[in-house]
Amino acid sequence: MQKFHLIATAAAGIEALVGKELRALGYETQVENGRVRFEGDLRDIMVANLWLRTADRVKIIVGEFDATDFDSLFEQTKALPWEDLLPIDAAFPVEGKSHRSQLHNVPSVQAIVKKAIVDRLTEVYHRRTRLSETGATYPLEVAINKDHVLLTLDTTGPSLFKRGYRKGKGGAPLKENMAAALVMLAHWFPDNPFVDPVCGSGTIPIEAALIGHNIAPGINRGFQCEHWVNLMPENLSDDVRDEADTKADYDIELDIHGYDIDQNMIDIAQRNCQAAGLTHDITFKQLAVKDWHTDKINGVIVANPPYGERLSDQESVRELYRQMGEIYRPMTTWSKYILTADLEFETYYGQKATKRRKLYNGALRTDLFQYWGKKQR
Fold it and tell me: What InterPro entries is this protein classified in (predicted)?
């Protein structure tokens, strides 16, 4: 099977996690800003799409080169073997972006790349009329950074964070792959308690349960590459999915709880949990942060509380941080991981974090405040 140069794209700050996931799947990696490079065939592409919890997309690198004028962009694009990927009836929309490059007019860049590919395919397939583009879609992107052109084919389709279980959400939902990243950064083991005290629509507890059972996050959704009959061997997708299903451990008992002060959010979380097939694995309950207490030890708390971005909300949010500090500080065997854009969090929580990690929730800069517990044997 043909080998490809591949990239898994990721949000700023979690590329290293994507690299770690890929290495755990058996691939050699090269971590860069916003992406991780690796190599693989079509089976590996399916495996990566199915199993990557923290990535956004898996893309085939069709070609990369330097270009500072449109002639160079056209000729080097046309020289690539597009016919190895695109059948005669392929629909191939071209997205574009450019950063700090001489070729900065993105619509023109997209048009040149499209024309170069059309010319190549027209010659190879001996077409006298226009290409029909009535077949499966092959989404392409031309990305230019400091005059370096990267041409890629998206194998994923809708972003990997779209697992398929979210039937409802709150006002400021956390993407599923960011929620998975928070769980992974918490170094939680499935035999320990896990609590999200401000669970909203339940994304963090659901991602924890998927990790706890070793369920592939993409098992209940499809991928763009599965429509490429010219490339995908018959039954390959089914084989990879069946293999993933055998790796899941559905018997392990998990102690995962999600709480929220808003009963409406708890109702949404329970619906999402049911859609994920995890109804018996997570307990959701309407409860304020200040009213929670536990006698359990060695647990993990992962929370994405409101950030109080509006001044009118800031006072109530910082009161929430104070309540968290009062309840969590004495729980010395528990580790706490709290994500917020409020850089004054430690002041109101009442304790300096063991470690802080900068992450981006969409375009918003946030910090993960980490308080490491001392496990009791």
Answer: DNA_methylase_N6_adenine_CS, RlmKL-like_Mtase, RlmKL-like_Mtase_CS, RlmL_1st, SAM-dependent_MTases_sf, THUMP_dom
DSSP per-residue letters across 224-257: GGGG-TTTSPTTHHHHHHHHHHHH---S----EE
CA 188 from chain centre, in angstroms, equals: 19
Euclidean distance between CA atoms 359 and 377, whole angstroms: 32
Say how far apart CA 180 and CA 359 lie, in whole Å: 13
Helix (H, G, I), strand (E, B) or coil at 222: coil
Q: What are φ and ψ of residue 290, in 5° steps? A: -70, -15
Q: Is the C-alpha dihedral spanning 362, 258, 188, 289 positive or negative?
A: positive
Q: Tokens representing 247?
A: 């790796």
74-130 pLDDT, tens digit per residue, is: 999 999 999 999 999 999 999 999 999 999 999 999 999 999 999 999 999 999 899
Residues of the chain with pLDDT under 50: none
Bridge partners, residue 102, by sequence: none
The model's pTM = 0.96
Residue 6 phi/psi, 5-degree rounding, is -125, 155
Token reading at 6:
């591949």
Distance CA 86, CA 230 (A): 8
Tokens at 280, concatenated: 């018996």
- Number of C-alpha atoms within 13 angstroms, CB side, residue 264? 4
Paired tokens of 11: 């949000």
| Distances, alpha carbon 115 to alpha carbons 60, 89, 124, in Å | 20, 16, 14
